[in-house]
Input
Amino acid sequence: MAPARFARFAVVAPASAPGPWQPIAGGLTAPQGFLAAGITAGLKASGKPDLSLLLAPEGAVCAGSFTTSLVRAACVDLCAERLAASGGLARAVLTNSGQANACTGERGLADSLTATAALAERLGLAAEQVLICSTGVIGVPIPIDTLVAGLDPLVAALARDGGAAAARAILTTDLVEKQIALEANLGGRRVRIGGMAKGSGMIHPTMATMLGYLSCDAGVPAEQWQAMLRRVVERSFNAITVDGDTSTNDTFLAFAAGEPLDPEHVAALEAGLTAVAQHLARAIARDGEGATCLIAVQVEGAVDEAGARAIARTICGSSLVKCAIHGRDPNWGRIVAAAGRAGVPFDPQAVALWLGQHQLMAAGQPLAFDRLAASHYMRDRAAGTYLGSDPASGDTVAIRLVVGAGPGTALAWGCDLSDQYVRINADYTT
Amino acid sequence: MAPARFARFAVVAPASAPGPWQPIAGGLTAPQGFLAAGITAGLKASGKPDLSLLLAPEGAVCAGSFTTSLVRAACVDLCAERLAASGGLARAVLTNSGQANACTGERGLADSLTATAALAERLGLAAEQVLICSTGVIGVPIPIDTLVAGLDPLVAALARDGGAAAARAILTTDLVEKQIALEANLGGRRVRIGGMAKGSGMIHPTMATMLGYLSCDAGVPAEQWQAMLRRVVERSFNAITVDGDTSTNDTFLAFAAGEPLDPEHVAALEAGLTAVAQHLARAIARDGEGATCLIAVQVEGAVDEAGARAIARTICGSSLVKCAIHGRDPNWGRIVAAAGRAGVPFDPQAVALWLGQHQLMAAGQPLAFDRLAASHYMRDRAAGTYLGSDPASGDTVAIRLVVGAGPGTALAWGCDLSDQYVRINADYTT
Output
């Protein structure tokens, strides 16, 4: 039995939307033409919703990103192969929660094929146009008859406002649903982006980790869409870490379908996509097991953006930094030590460091600072009662590290490491 | 204030000595001609011993390994430069505990130079023959006058049996001293190897982590000695992990001085050096903050030894694996998931996995196994009451993972992750 998770928990505030983008209600089905559904098919012993469906409009293109783990689930192989074979054409994605379908051998692939074929028939699609994601316990097969029996009611439930039900049905140990929608007027035309995700970072290998989905009602050619989404994923899902335990099932799927977008608005669209993906990624980090706050690390002055992100993510992933923040302890040596082992060149003599508005280092050397005030900054941040002026929102502890005068800047997100995390993960299956 | 560490704690049993090697009493000063001392100079507020000295016989050669962190302490730079300049000739190493002398700017180097020059004068050596290691809090300068005032009593305390005092004076948050000595008859001649270390793995960036020292009374040419020690370090200190937080000060120094060894015994010597270094490395992992047991992971069948070690070390470093073992939870999916993200190619369909004598996987798929018995294996291991027949000794939880039919085999060591670890590291400086 998993022990109770922290009860006090704030949903991450919507990303401060960039440029023309405004938050709107809804999630995946906010963009025009997208339908979704979520039902209880009986795959989870708990009786919670466990089968989810997203149906994109005709002509949709799809970009996919998948776990880099060598040990990956059958459904991940199937998604990757179908998208590669079709050049990014897909219409529907089925998600079952409860069983990850990883380490299930040949039966795993057979079950993925059965499920997508049965769904394709009901939707009047080719099996190759249907994708499948699975999340749950590793090594346990999907009760495939139960899943197939759930497909008729699932298709019947498809609705214009089905995004919220779909977002609920993909959850496993998550404390909260994670969805968002943004809207912008681009050249006189409304464009909407929706998104949903599940997972508490890369910290549930037995519960199949992170799944992310995005919908957009502007048409973008498949190749361009995939290139955009690669950049978006780097700046969002690939910029979070909870404990570095990459899952066997991590998947992000992004669908676009609609009138073609005027090329002059492509940059604005990418900014909106990035905001949606970053919101979902931050929500996943904030929902990290046992976490009491979000940690945002901005690294500036690195040789390039990838280097800055590597440093930022190493800091976010350091157990010692995470413990220090959990203890509201401004133990800055750990932040610099983590940066030093990130494998990215920089000049230690150029380092400057801030915790919120408190500057802790300049020119590679410690500064005198008010330890108590810095500790209270973290305490108030985590409690959501901080009244200061640093730009991070909500319950976010903000770290800013300058490592030189280079052009590389990047943000990464993580969460603190609590004794609750250990209890949750020590007692999971027994 | 750091909270109390776990009280129940077993010193790691001496490595089962390979071939002709037998454990003997003593540590660094067991080999002939080596002198050592440890005293209280007043560098630590606690009043515990804090200044340590090893003096090697004339003609000694020295091999050094240092942290790969970009942010490294002044003393590390000084050691590395002196050994490079002299081709591995050094006679003495001074160690101060209490202050790490990292992130201390120009003053850090000046203090290292002052300390080694003052000690060299008292020993009748050139400053370049003297090395220095520092361990303690980052960003705080050494009280250099206090250190220099301690040099006369330190040199006066040099003794043939000073190894134990030296081993005590290098400790910071360690719960136990870590020293060992082995002896062998090689071609009718006694050869001895001694060693000492401090640290609880790579988990104390503010307390300057791992220091290791080795002495040997057989003469080996400097280049050959350095090449041997590079292999030894890969198979010992570079095969442990506690939480991946590489320190700014990690240093390993190995001295050899004595009659030249007959070349036919060089392989036997290397086996002894490896056993000493592995003993110290395992003792460091076992002393990991909050740890209740040692974890030993053997990976077999990889493409090469380095690949096997990378997989083994990734498993040892997985927070989820560490939590599962702390909870005595045979949650094998986490072990395979960690292997999958190690960045080393293998065939997931070839994977076989054992926890102690319990086989959990074969041919990439889960086997039915007795969960309770597997859980009790871990419980009894950690309590030191295990009566089974697996080869790991003492309070060691043994994991064996076969990833194919390749020739690469390696061992790595770590420790479990407890809620105590979080409490210790959340409350460290405030």
